Inverse folding.
């Protein structure tokens, strides 16, 4: 039950004083002087694009996640496209993925002329439910694309199991999950290919940027060609045929990540442990504060994982509130808490609706979650004061709308 005093506190959305004077974003990068210096050093060097920093970043990244190979891309989306290509997706094929993600996860299947098939999520983690995957496998299925929603690893063992039984490739979209652990192993070393994004709201920022990690040499080679116009990178052959010679062996793209971005990546990678530690601290504090707040469901954490906490998505217990998600969202924004919603289920976007004829109701767990979700601010540069503001604002708003 709300206390009298909290009921009396006028919400900013109705003209009251906001909890904060300035808007706290839901996510943002942390750039230090060391990062700036690393970029400046590249600008003074001989290389702007593919130079020594690309290999340095890829090697450091592969070592960090525990994979044999890491291949950088100009964005997480380009990296997904590369992985879909390397997995051999082509027209007529299908790939099974989750609707609870950013559209790029499914779009990469379409880029290859293949068809994304959605399967519903588990109610606790909102990750692809392996039980829902199996019945959607057909003779055309070639890949499964789980997403580590909010940074909580997907059910990788169960998904790899299903994949092994049917000869499918598992491409894990770990854009949220750099540094997450699944059964004592780091994400990036588990699926056949794992994709990361270095967009500024993610754990490691290079402006735009992405990476695919894999233990398979053939995938790594295919990824390298695909990001560089389909040009074969066999240096020995080039040596034998003369320095001018190169061969385009498949239709690729220019998806290369620059030396400038990779220098920033190398520098940011050194601070990843501290970043993760802070995110886990923030999540623990939120979960403790909200455990007794009726009307709010903090995100679930399964026993065998250590999430990376890209997002902290709460779900509203609408049955205990007099307001819907839109009203709660607007009230929090008015308190200057930069909340967001992750995600509008992909099949609900007009493009997917119109192209594939989704009517709504196909994926009830994802769709129900969508009506309740609100992402609270979560980034490693948040101060204790910022955290306290989020807690106060959510308590204020939820108490106001409590039944
Ligand atoms: C950020 C993100 C991407 C795309 O990454 P970009 O680097 O912005 O292209 C893909 N999938 C998910 C789940 C993401 O959060």
């Amino acid at each position: 039950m709300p206390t009298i005093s909290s009921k009396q506190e006028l919400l900013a959305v109705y003209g009251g004083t906001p909890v904060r004077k300035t808007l706290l974003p839901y996510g943002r990068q942390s750039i230090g002087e060391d990062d700036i210096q690393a970029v400046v050093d590249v600008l003074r060097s001989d290389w702007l694009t593919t130079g020594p920093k690309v290999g340095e970043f890829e090697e450091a990244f592969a070592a960090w996640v525990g994979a044999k190979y890491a291949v950088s891309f100009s964005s997480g989306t380009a990296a997904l496209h590369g992985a879909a290509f390397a997995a051999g997706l082509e027209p007529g094929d299908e790939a099974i993925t989750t609707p609870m993600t950013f559209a790029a996860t499914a779009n990469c299947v379409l880029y290859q002329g293949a068809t994304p098939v959605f399967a519903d999520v588990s109610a606790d983690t909102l990750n692809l439910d392996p039980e829902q995957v199996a019945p959607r496998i057909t003779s055309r299925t070639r890949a499964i694309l789980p997403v580590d929603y909010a940074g909580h690893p997907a059910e990788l063992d169960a998904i790899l199991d299903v994949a092994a039984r049917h000869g499918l490739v598992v491409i894990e979209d770990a854009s949220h999950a750099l540094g997450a652990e699944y059964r004592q192993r780091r994400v990036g070393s588990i699926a056949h290919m794992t994709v990361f994004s270095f967009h500024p709201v993610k754990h490691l920022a290079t402006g735009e940027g992405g990476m695919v990690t894999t233990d398979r040499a053939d995938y790594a080679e295919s990824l390298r060609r695909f990001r560089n116009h389909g040009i074969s990178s066999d240096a020995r052959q080039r040596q034998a045929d003369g320095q001018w010679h190169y061969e385009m062996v498949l239709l690729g793209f220019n998806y290369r990540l620059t030396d400038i971005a990779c220098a920033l990546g190398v520098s940011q990678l050194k601070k990843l442990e501290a970043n993760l530690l802070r995110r886990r601290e923030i999540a623990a504090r939120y979960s403790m504060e909200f455990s007794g707040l009726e009307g709010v469901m903090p995100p679930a954490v399964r026993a065998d994982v250590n999430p990376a906490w890209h997002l902290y998505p709460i779900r509203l217990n609408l049955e205990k509130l007099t307001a819907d998600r839109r009203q709660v969202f607007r009230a929090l924004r008015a308190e200057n808490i930069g909340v967001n919603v992750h995600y509008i289920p992909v099949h609900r976007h007009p493009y997917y609706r119109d192209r594939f004829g989704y009517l709504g109701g196909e994926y009830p767990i994802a769709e129900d979650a969508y009506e309740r979700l609100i992402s609270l601010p979560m980034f490693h540069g948040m101060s204790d004061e910022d955290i306290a503001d989020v807690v106060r604002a959510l308590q204020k708003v939820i108490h106001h709308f409590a039944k």
In short: The two ends are 8 Å apart (CA to CA).
